[in-house]
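Colleagues,

Please find the record for the two-part complex below.
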Amino acid sequence: MKKILFFFAFFLFLKPALMAQNQRISGKVVDEKGETLVGVSVKVKNAAIGASTDTNGSFSLDAPSNSTLVFTYIGFNPKEVILAGQKTITVTLTQSASQLNELVVVGYGTQRKSQVATAVGSVEGKAIAERGTVSPLQAVQGQLAGVDVSAGSGRTGASFNVQIRGQNSLAGGQPLFVVDGVIVSDINFLNPQDIAKMDVLKDAASTAIYGSRGSNGVVMVTTKNGTSIKGGGATITYDGYVGIRKVNRMPNFMTGEEWWEYRQNTYISPELIAGRTFTNTIGSLDNPTVLQTVANHDYTNWTSLVLQNGIQSNHWVTASGQSENNNIQYLIGAGYQNEKGNFLQDDLNRYNFKINVDGKINKYFSAGMSANFSLSETERGSDDAVRNGFNMAPIFKPYDENGNPKFRPGQIPVPGSSVVSSFTSTVNPLLEITNSQNNTRRNFGVGNIYLQYSPTSWIDVRSTFSPSVNFVRNGRYWGSLTGVGDGLLPDAQRVNQQTFSYIFDNVVTVRKTIKEHSFTFTGLYSMQKDRFESDTTKVNDLPYNSSFYNLGTSNNRQISSSNFNQFSIVSYLARLNYSFNNKYFVTLANRWDGSSKLAEGNKWSSFPSAALAWQVSKEPFMQNLTFLSDLKARFSAGIAGNNNNIRPYETQMNLSAPTYYDYGGTPALGYSPSRLPNSSLTWERTREFDFGIDFGFFKNRITGSIDVYDKLSHGLLLNRDLPLETGYTSIKDNVGSVSNKGVELALRTINISKKDFTWSTSFTFSRNKNAIIDLLDKKQDLVGNWWFIGQPINVNYIYVFDGIWQENERATALTYGQLPGQAKVKDLNNDGKISSTNDRAIIGQKDPKWTGGFSTQFTYKAFDLSASLFARQGMQVYSAFHSIFTRYNDRGTNKIYNDYYMPANNVTPARSSNTYPQPNNIGPYWDGITGVGYYKDISFVKVQNIALGYTFPAKILDKIKIKSLRVYANVLNPFVWTDYDGFDPESASGIDTSIDPNQTNTTAGSINNTGPSTITYQFGLNLKF
Amino acid sequence: MNNIMKKQLILSLLILLSSLTGCKKFLEEDNKSNIVSDDYYATADGYEKLVNSVYSSLRKVYSSPYLFCAGTDMYVEGRDAQPAGISEYQNLNPDNAEVQTFYTNVYSSIQLCNSALYFNDITAPTANLSMRKGEMKFIRAYYYFLMAQTFGGVSLVTDRFTSPVETFKRNTATETYDFIIKEMTEALSLVPETTTDFGRVTKKTVRHFLAKVYLTRGYESFGSPQDFTTAATLADEAIAGKTLTTSFENLFYPGNEKDPEVLFSIQFDAGSLPSATTGGNTQAAFFGPYQGGSGATQGYPYRTYVLVPTLYTFNTFTENDARFDATFMINLYQRYYDYYDKSADRANLNIKFYYKPKWDTSTDAAWRAIDPAHRNATTIIPYSAAWQASRSTVLDNASPSVKKFDDPKSQFGGATSTRDFFLARLGETYLIAAEAYFKAGNTTLAAQRINEVRRRAAKPGKVAEMAVNPADVNINFILDERARELVGEYHRWFDLKRTGTLMERTKLYNRDIKTNWFDKGINPFLGTNGQFKILRPIPSRAIDLNAGSIEQNPGY
């Protein structure tokens, strides 16, 4: 109380004294278009007087009559105005072309971009929101050099994989995600509209700040808060769109005639080979129903029955503001996203709620909190949706004579007999999909509370406690009329997973400037604990459809299990940033991490880093080069680690899940050892050198950066396959080294900047060369894993396809034990036989050789037009689509039409093909992950979106009390250029590493993770009032 | 700094320091959901659980039929393909997935045995320990016997591993057989004559298999004629004077898995399946035609149409042999499982399919006339070459189904049977004895042993017609008799391989091997360097992953 009285007295005493010498100045701040700017800081130079503009862009303050006013505003060039007696002024601020003043989040602090000595890429929230994607990661595809974002699946609610500067680790691995300073498992819970900024730490010198978890790169997300919404007073924004998603670029599935011919060929082939005679009824089973369907060309277009137009919408509302004295800033937000997929029973709903408050308690203390809560519900329907949806042959009928869906349309009874022609037992997708549920409900909450103590203006001590909770419930239901339900009673399963995690960070920041020398020291002590629990229940034979909500009604328990694990990490960090004269910058840092997952003696490790930057353009000798507005050279070196691939307890030999047995009916469960343990496991360490240049030309009309890097990762953690004779499949081990070398280029040009017309373009390019240096600490290939010294980690090592054996090659084919019509592979060593040791070769790599992005923005008066394009080139995968739909030895289901091989016969036309084998005679080398049939190049170039917007003039909006309003139309994925003839090339492999991160070269993906290519049309608006 | 500030600074430093202590404890692992295996196996109860897991490994090793049955004279592929390399040899190469899976499964099971033997010495002492040692030694030796028959000599791994081992040397076939015989002989002295835990290894089990090991080694270049004599003696000891008293039909009737004739079987039970639709015996899913996908609702088993009897298999039976009707579902009722579920009332059931044996010479009309009410709508499938299904077979149920392994109580699916899987039964012990006596030159005793099997097999009053003379006993007769007795039991490939008849008999009786290859002048067994692919190839994965150099088998 005493204190408060003292302050009052102080102000009472001071105020009249100031008033006496000053006069009242009022004015308005506008941008180049004449629109008012809200929240612009106005200060009197060399005096402690300041104000900010209000919602009308107006300000007023008392200042000496001949003083200079300084106007600063984020994203605009600062401006100084010398008062010459005016009492009212109007100031126009120009938008800054350079992003040099932009703040970059670098981990436990921020830095001005001009001072950053490490490799960090940033994307503004606006550039994320305007892509109109459901996932925030998808929105940054192609926007950041060196950051490769790829779709994990082609389905609704798909997750995206991020690879930063190539794969360091043989076991892959996602980068570390940090949202508002809190380490989280992923960022799928975010609504893209909520992102203020995304910064990606790329080189080891920047990621080493996150020590043992930094080697895959760090994605730092800053969500919108009270300060990022510009403007004083209360502001309410609404951003939203609705869209329709249409299936496009459908693969060339067989028509009725094509399939019927194919079907007969599958029956003719073995007869031809065996030299038996056959009739033209082969394959038709003499079934009059079938024959009639064929004769009448009465075919069914199954895909149109299964697919629908997707519908999507996204709504995001925020309210933000500041208290009068600017001491309290707040933002509250709520969002809703909805997506109805292209398959029946495919949808996503996501709700987001957030609150963010920052306040100054007094001169020394400030505190704040933020909380972000998201509830999402994803429905994926049947695991067989994609396969079932497309493999029904056109001669099957979806409905019976009463108009009800048939259970198994591929089983066609012969009228008047007990015989059934069985083409396939596949269940009707109209029943399979609609009677299946695969429903995931995720409640994710992350928040933090901090207390900051600033004993002086140059020391901040901040303690932050950041808890997060993740509750995931996956419910499965297989109705009676599904393949699993099999016409009997329904089955259901529930999996509950809950993770509770907390991070307790204590950070000391000391900032001190002594003449030209400026120091910032950051010290951190951090503790983290993650606790995970889960349980699973599966029952069969539910008496009635209670979905997965009442498992107790069944007495047929299939699974009842639970699980627990937890790990903890303790960390220390010391970092010193030093700059001299704002020209030379040095960052030195070290982080010490200890992890519970490692065995005693191997728990601790340290991760040092150093970075230098030289602002060349500030040197006197550069001042004559007027075309050069900015030039900075950067060099960094650092070591970052990774032990994400180690699960808790992996250094122990525990017990497996039960083995089942009985003695004469008396149950006898058993427990075998769970694994071969490895107590010497330690961190995977990546050292990296980065050399980069940031440049700006012609008053920063052209800006950009070039980086080259050289990474070497040691002690890679992965499941190393063991000799089969050990009885164990594999062991987690530190086994090798991998090099990643690459170059990244980012370029932004403002091509035209006129009052009414602007045009800018951005361009990114990155190329990474990945190579295994050694394995098992030796220069020795691990052929069984398809790992070869000097080659990329992810390669395809199989036989080399050499066309189809033709009839005139029969004699040669027979010497290889093959027949005409079968896939031929190269006898690489020409020894007259095909052997796995001598005749396999690396035929391609799974990761792109290069990726690039291009985007362009036009504004013309109130109109804006933007487009973005994204390319991933030079990668080849085992195509999940082709493994089902070009598996030409299967004869009951539909395929895509290719010109396959078929010898002359008396029923169907002969076909010659050198690319696809004979139906039902594919040979030993076509099928499967080791076969040559389904490896496809999936390089593509995609136009991600084209958006056209119109911003209403402020004059009109003023009248209806609206600050700004923009309406836009956006089209997503309008064009794709690719040679891949399956579904969308992005998800062609069908491997979703977010579901199972431990993938090997010989993992085959699932068709259910792929999906048709689509085009989305959106209409949206951005509203602020 | 003023005093307040100093106090605040000290306070915050104290908070910081207090959080630093306890750091070591903070990094300790706390595993609430599992236990360190060594601690568990050191207890008496934990040790029994390890032994149980060894028995359970038998289920895994026998989960796929192809290495045991495909590419023989008895089974051929139907509408769906068998693994090509296994079924026709021409494309058999070291990459074969079936061979690799088998190799992997057997070695992982051997490692379990090694663990069980390792802990046998150090676990809490109980009265059962020496018996368990015998059981474990037998099972491990049995696995090596499977390996020796399949691959010849293999690495004899007897250590329990706690850290990776990179190099394994391949032992010779002689060493492998010596090891098997030594271990089984030791086991014989440790296991009991009988057990109350049905399904555990007994002396009878060991004698039966030791007889088979000697018999098999007898044929090998490093074997001796003495091996056959020893085999005969051991087989007779296993028989121990017991005759075959259960009818063949009843021996395989669901629910009769604990018949005293069963010397060793892999145990399955509705109560010991991980779930009703997984982990069951897969044997029931083979050896017959596909019957459709609606068995769950219509009461018939899931059958794959992959491994169906050859014409040879059907042909080898005669009219006097009751095993034909006991092996095949000749009258298929409207609901397949009604054969069991309404066994007392079969006369009142409609017959959906009748598979007319070759000796049924009556006309269709005459057959229907016997019971018109239940036979008029029957589809009669006469004996013909079409019984042998092929890839162009278009009709489900085109040939008679093997019913020996039917489990009417199981759920519809491939791995759902709850019936025990017979590995050794007395009928086969007689045939082992017969073969051993025959190879030892004693055709009289050989005929006697065979005639015990045929006596039981004879239809009422046909024993004399079924009896065989010593002069008629030869290796082909023995193999034919094994065919009739053991349809669908997983011995055939080993029988042909052991007796050296694999090439000649598959050329004669396996349609696909004959027409696709031999008839075209290609010997599909012929591999590199003019050597025949009789042994299976050592999987290329095994060679790739082994840091030592492993010699590949001939022909690959």
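Chain A has twelve helices and 50 strands.

Comments are welcome before we finalize the supplementary table.
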